[in-house]
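This protein record is not my work; I was only asked to verify it. Would you go through it and say whether the fold makes sense for this chain? Here is the record exactly as it was handed to me.
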Amino acid sequence: MTFVEEIALRQSIRLALLTVGLVAAALYALFLCHRGPGWGKTIVKAIPMPAFGVAVAVSFGSPVIVGALALSALGDIALSRPSRRAFMVGLVGFALAHVAYIYHFWTLSGGAVTDAWLAVGALLIFAASTEVWLAPFTGDLKGPARIYVVLITLMGLTALGLPNAPLAVIGAFAFLASDTLLALQLFRMPETSRWHRLTSVLLWVLYVGGQFAILAGVGWATPLFQIW
């Protein structure tokens, strides 16, 4: 196999894996995300992030992004199971994924401080507001919840330092929005609420869309797509 043929093969595998991940994500959103725990749900939910991660790895993408997607896959699998222990594993998985993204964004920006002060202020106000609408309702998870809020806030702040990677910025804030909806669903929304199904679909779409936008924007040396 020549060098050109190998590159063509890797690009074909990348496209196939990204497609598999997006199709599995769509099936999960349409048919499974609002249902109760089950192994079928877990299996389908476990497909998108590993598919995205291998797509990045096979086409010489960032190993940090691969790691973040692997940790997110761990979070997806754990949160699809009903036990408290699985929930804590999922929380740690996603927290570490955010740490990976913070590191990657900070590295790409060279530690540059964003001049988007309005966005920074809004993000900090949002983080502080969780002490009112979230922390008092988290029980013995108040400490982990606060740490998680700090991490998603830092992810948003470091993403704002990437003015030349708009896809990644959009993705980071979509990911943050999905975490916010999940927090509302877990800690503020009654189990009998009619909004559970809509919230489940919306947070999953934001989560997968956010992850895809991040990898498309900063997963490789050049963006997968260019939006401006």
